[in-house]
Design goal:
There is one protein chain. This protein has 285 residues and is an alpha+beta fold. The protein has two domains: 10-134, Roll (Ubiquitin-like (UB roll)), CATH 3.10.20; 146-284, ADC-like domains (N-terminal domain of TfIIb, Single Sheet). The chain is built from seven helices and twelve strands. The chain has helices at 31-37, 89-105, 114-120, 158-163, 202-206, 215-223, 274-278, and strands spanning 13-18, 21-26, 61-64, 71-72, 83-85, 146-148, 173-176, 183-186, 212-214, 231-237, 246-252, 255-260. The strands form four sheets. It has a five-stranded mixed β-sheet with strand order 2-1-5-3-4, with helices on both faces. Strand 1 (13-18) and strand 2 form a beta hairpin. The protein is globular, with a radius of gyration of 21 Å. Residues 231-285 form the 4Fe-4S Mo/W bis-MGD-type domain.
């Protein structure tokens, strides 16, 4: 009997205009996808390529002709004939203000590309005051595997989604509190070792600001020895079981300092278990 290969049904193509450029994308694609297709660099923080958009950070807003408000590019689906502008004065002002408000309330020092965006949009978080950070708090170091530094948390919900129904299904963390008191918390705010956490580290994988980090990385940043210019990333196959997960090992000075997995992997989609993510400490011994 011949083997049957299942393929996705072809999607209808939709035509739109992005920054005066005609673009054809697949039905169901987002504005952000159309921008990426055209090489238009659109800043994002809460968007993740393996998660459903939450529209939390609003850094990716764009102007759509006929729309009263700016719309989030990460979740707004492209419609036939849609006219999108990504670099108007209104868009630039909105992105500048969002970056300033975020930068004045949380520590974005370990957020990739944020300094570049500050320069691009002439954002100055200090104009709200040098001590305006409203969520300043000590890092939670209650285990030997990873650190929770919520002074860097922008409440993007990506860690909650990765831990919950979108990937891991553990539901060890959630958003607690309301308004300015909102924060990421374990059940009853217990220490991580006493929670339902299974230490898969998939929350670390999706965190955009470094609020969640490997203990090794946290320690190296604290003592000033974290050096990305001396790091190399090598892909290998996890040896712990037969699933065949791809590991991306970040190595600095012959020491493994971080472990991830390619988001386009058909096996992991960026996710790992505790052994794949953290089971390499013996290598340094």
């Amino acid at each position: 009997m011949s083997e049957v290969t299942l393929v996705d049904a072809p999607r209808r193509r939709i035509e739109c205009t992005v920054d005066d450029r005609p673009v054809r994308v697949g039905e169901g694609d987002t504005i952000l996808g159309a921008c990426n297709r055209e090489g238009i660099d659109t800043p994002t923080l809460c968007w993740g390529d393996t998660l459903t958009p939450k529209n939390a950070c609003r850094v990716c807003v764009v102007e759509v002709e006929g729309s009263r408000a700016l719309v989030p590019a990460c979740s707004r689906k492209v419609e036939p004939g849609m006219v999108v502008r990504t670099d108007t004065p209104r868009v630039r002002h909105a992105r500048k203000l969002v970056l300033e408000l975020l930068g004045s309330s949380v520590d974005l020092s370990t957020t990739p590309r944020v300094d570049e965006w500050y320069d691009r949009y002439e954002a100055d978080p200090t104009r709200f005051g040098e001590v305006a950070r409203t969520v300043a708090q000590p890092a939670k170091v209650d285990n030997d595997l990873y650190v929770r530094d919520y002074a860097k948390c922008i409440l993007c919900y990506k860690c909650v989604d990765a831990c919950g129904d979108q990937w891991q299904g553990t539901f060890a963390i959630a958003v607690a509190g309301r308004g300015f008191a909102s924060h990421i918390s374990t059940e009853y705010d217990v220490p991580l070792p006493e929670s339902a956490c299974v230490y898969c580290g998939n929350c670390i994988e999706v965190c955009p600001t470094g609020a969640l980090s490997f203990k090794v990385e946290f320690d190296k940043r604290a003592d000033g020895t974290w050096a990305e210019d001396r790091q190399q990333v090598t892909d290998t196959i996890c040896p712990y079981c037969g699933v065949g997960c791809t590991l991306s090992l970040t190595v600095q000075d012959n020491q493994i300092v971080r472990v991830g997995s390619p988001h386009d992997s058909s096996v992991t989609h960026g996710n790992l278990c505790i052994k794949g993510r953290f089971g390499w400490a013996h290598v340094a011994r």
